[in-house]
TrEMBL record, chain A:
Family per record: Belongs to the binding-protein-dependent transport system permease family.
GO biological process, one term: transmembrane transport
Pfam families tied to this protein: BPD_transp_1 (PF00528)
Subcellular location: Cell membrane
Domain of life (superkingdom): Bacteria
Name listed for the protein in its UniProt record: Carbohydrate ABC transporter permease
One GO cellular component term: plasma membrane
From TrEMBL, chain B:
Ranges where the ABC transmembrane type-1 domain occurs: 105-321
InterPro entries associated with the record: MetI-like (IPR000515), MetI-like_sf (IPR035906), UgpAE/MalFG_permease (IPR050809)
Gene3D superfamilies referenced in this protein's UniProt entry, alphabetically: MetI-like
Subcellular location: Cell membrane
Span list, region Disordered: 1-33
Biological source species: Streptomyces malaysiensis subsp. samsunensis
Protein name according to UniProt: Sugar ABC transporter permease
Amino acid sequence: MKRSPLARLWPNATAVVLFIGFAFPVYWMFTTALKPNSDIISEDPVWFPTGATLEHFQKAVNAENFWTLVGNSLTVTLSAVVLSLLIALLASFALARMRFKGRRGFLLTFMIAQMAPWEVLVIAIYMLVRDGDMLNSLLPLTLFYMVMVLPFTILTLRSYVAAIPKELEESAMVDGCTRPQAFIRVIFPLLAPGLMATSLFGFITAWNEFPLVLILNKDPEAQTLPLWLSRFQTAFGDDWGATMAAASLFAIPILLLFLFLQRKAVGGLTSGAVKG
Amino acid sequence: MAVATERQDPGPAAAGVRRGGAPPGPRRRGPGAHGRARLIGAAPYLLLLPALAVTAVLLGWPLIKNGLLSFQNLNMRQLIQHLTEWNGVDNYRETLTSEDFWRVTLRSVIFTAANVVLIMVLGTLVGLLLARLGSKMRLLLSVGLVLSWAMPPIAATTVFQWLFATRFGVVNWVLDALGWHSMAHYNWTGGQFSTFFVITLLIVWQSIPFVAINLYAATTTIPGELYEAAALDGAGTWKSFASVTFPFLKPFLLATTFLEVIWVFKAFTQVFAINEGGPERLTETLPVYAFVEGVGNQHYGMGAAISLLTIVVLLALTSYYLRIVLRQEEDEL
């Protein structure tokens, strides 16, 4: 097809403009975090900082309870993901490999559970947790995060299990494996990439969760990082350098995971979340 | 709570199957092996049990609890003294007759519609652009998209607060430099419309990548022959889009619109974190309204009633598509 130079130019020019638009806030977060204060509080923005300082990062890291909260976030997130993976493995195997009455019903249940409006259930959850005298504890957070990511984990793992040829399992069983053995020796190793991708998505969801921790864990030492970050700017009186350093520290693990996951993200999300 | 942790041990079920001996054909039932057959018949249910149990306890129970709370008069006093005061449908009557609730509902619906339309239109355009670009430019744009997609909502909200900061914020500086001098020290979170503008920009910025990247992935699955056939029939760019690309993408677009409606409507993090529903509670959407009424003003029963009504509104908004999906899934599963 013939295309004039202009027709070839505009998609590329648009792409560059869009790239700047999408990447700029992230760029601005990192550069602000690294700029000296004089470059942040300046009448004209310093677009390309020349000097870098770690002063803001130090301030964020030395903020009260920072390391406790990092520990809390990691504990809650990792436990939630591991628990939901264990439970989802069992369920996804049944849903992908077995025929039984009510299978559709169970699948629909998990699809609907995936859309559960957790944001508006926080009041009820607060009452339940309060009645159990577990406010400011990490256990309820862990359990609820586990259930939040569970339906997605089950449905995604199910499609990964279904993608593994049944013959592999059957031939292992012909060779004398029992079904659980066939699962552990044959399917499980092949499932590793799927487990990896699924658990990383669970990690991202749990790491970012905000409304529930906002209502359940008010104690400064029982919070997680999202709550800490949302209050940082107020607590530090418009210290944008430190606030952006805090935001960077919180975002870096997720940005790295995402870049690492990008290819799987497309396949995984379309096959797992959208399509079911 | 303990139930959930105890039940996740699949030990007995798995061990039981193993003890069955010879490789069990899943649907074969040998005569005289009734015990084993029953066990194998039960296997899928036992495997599903932990998942169903935790979902029932940790999702079902809060849903029921929310329903119960919505019929209670539960304020600070009752909360502290652990009193249960039933007050029938008072919470609902009060909510449904209050002007505030309907105003917030209308606001939520408009907010959702505006965001979803922007996300879908712009996301589709960016996705189609991705399909048109050369591989280097596509990679460049994809990196930008993944960055905004990946940003944790709370971190993104903080960054937008900084971008739109009254003093030293980049946005105000740019607007001033472009000649709109009254914006030099504009307070974006000081007004209803301007706060919603920032929230919308934030949500749209974060949501476009999901639509664009998945739409691009979907276009790569369109068979090239379809375009060739269209070209043979003399179709131009627009015609081949209308007769090949769009019909092919329609199910995807429908499904994504549905998901975006749910996500935007129940968006809490960004709306709350940017200005806690202010100024003057003018940017509260339904989930934030329920939170501020219930937790902030300590009318927990009222908050629960608003939460339940929020779910009803969400179901109403998505019912059309939900019906299609359920019917479709019924056929496919």
